Amino acid sequence: MGFPDELVTLPRDHGTLFFVPNTDDVLRRFNPDNEDIRDVVSVDEGGVTRYRLKSGALTGFSDDGCSVGRDQILREAELDRAVMLHPKHRKLAEAAVDAIRDLVHPDSAGEERQPFDVAPDAYPASDPNPQRWQVAHALITLAEGYTRSARTTAVGTLARTVFNPLVTP
Amino acid sequence: MSEGRDALLDYAATRLDALRERGVSELAAVNTLLALQSLVKSDAATPQVGIDGDGGIETEWLVDGRSLILNCGVDGTNVLWALDEDCQMLFRREFNARMVDESLLGLARDLIDRMNRGVRNSVRSS
Q1: How far from the centroid of its chain's Cα atoms is residue A82's Cα?
Q2: CB distance A83 to A74 below 8 Å
Q3: How far apart are CA B125 and CA B43, in angstroms?
């Protein structure tokens, strides 16, 4: 079954539909359920004003993973990053795939591991109303062995040290 | 208790009330407030109350790249952890919000004291 005509298609043998290279970047829309930007962003109160994501900006790890868009696929499909935006979440955060995979954080047993990976997931079957940008959809996944407490600080570290909030029009 | 400390706790309580209205865990909200009452001793760096990705509450002090983070989960688990300006973890400890361990309180208050001296742009004044 093909995609609806208005959606973007890429060749079936397009390699990056099956693998996310380390050289790619991913984009995360701020949590669609948030009504207040302060819920998911902290402001540095020091000499230089800058912003950091809270872990609340990265949801889905207790299910199949955290939804992101792959910048390389958006470019190849000639889609502007802005297609990912929505009136209720007008901001994106960017992260390098290699930095996501390289992050080290202890699991629930205290063992230092690299818990995150990025997997392609174009047009996820769970979404009954696919959007054009979802040709670039991917999931950040968390390895097993991270209970709620360990997951919270692992995701919090990912949000703060790997993701960079972008200001978009 | 200083007037400034009261103002800071009021600010945090207002944010917690807003999150309660949006359905965050009541247990997480109560534990956050209890922990803040132990941690906050003066009025400077702001505990920035927000959410985690699991229905709990995440509060962060952030000054010059240093973070102190308080996570209170829906299951009653509380974690206090910190990152230095190079994003390296300084400590990470689980605790009971009704009886915070003195050594953990000492670590956290020392960090907050250092942060207080660096505050130049308070989020409460914006």
Answers
A1: 15
A2: yes
A3: 13
> Tokens at residue A37, please?
């930007």
ipTM over 0.90: yes
Question: CB neighbours (10 Å) of residue A82?
Answer: 12
Nearest to B16 by CA among B32, B35, B3, B38: B32
Contacts of residue B13, Cβ cutoff 8 Å, sequence gap at least 6: B33
Q: Which helix (H) or strand (E) holds A138?
A: strand A137-142
The CA distance from B124 to B111, in Å, is 20
Q: Is 60 exceeded by the pLDDT of residue A5?
A: no
User: From B44, which residue of chain A is nearest by alpha-carbon distance?
Assistant: A45
Average pLDDT score over residue span A144-168: 91
Interface of A with B (CB under 8 A): 31, 34-36, 38-49, 52, 54-62, 66, 106, 148-149, 151-153, 155-157, 160-161
The answer to whether A28 and A66 are in contact (CB under 8 A) is yes
CA distances (Å), origin A168, targets A32, A78, B53, B85: 16, 18, 23, 26
Q: Which residues of A touch B22 (CB under 8 A)?
A: 35
Rounded CA-CA distance B101/B46 in Å is 22
Averaged over successive runs of 10 residues, the pLDDT of chain B (126 residues) comes to 81 93 92 94 89 93 96 95 95 91 93 94 82
The one-letter code for the residue type at A113 is R
Query: What's the predicted TM-score (pTM) here?
Result: 0.92
CB A116 within 8 A of CB A100: yes
Say whether B78 sits in a helix, a strand or coil. strand
